[in-house]
Amino acid sequence: MNNNDILRRLRYSFKFGDSKMISTFALGNLKVSREQVNSWLKKDSDPDYKECSDSNMASFLNGLIIEKRGKKEGKQPEPEKQLTNNVIFMKLKIALNLKAEDVLAIMDLAKFNISKHELSAFFRKPGNRHYRTCQDQILRNFLKGVQLKYRPGNNDSEVKPGQFQYNYKRKED
Question: How far, in whole angstroms, is CA 5 from its chain's centroid?
């Protein structure tokens, strides 16, 4: 997955407007213009499309952590120069204050099942013998589950608080 796609999915999932996107980048110590944000959110085929760099995406994710959890005491973290799916997954887990069971429930919403042991391997340090690289499919399904949890109601029926709703049609065998 590329940073632009992740940015688009997060914007949609949390219903962030341009101002909210700009302020989230600012919380991550990156001043961006509306034009920059809009160029990052455009589809790849658009002539105004610009690629969102890893350090810009890291600033957004750091800002999202501050937005959702508040500033931590002391020096704020510097944005990473290079991001991996594992780092993105970890930052989203931190921002949303999720425990392993919460992540598994979100993955279940996307109809993607993994074990707790498989999940913990994504959050280990790269040198650890149990470390596993987070593939695009895992991150994509997590983001789909986040969308289903935080932006329910894409169907006609009403969703009650605390209830989740799926926004896909099931294939008939």
Answer: 10
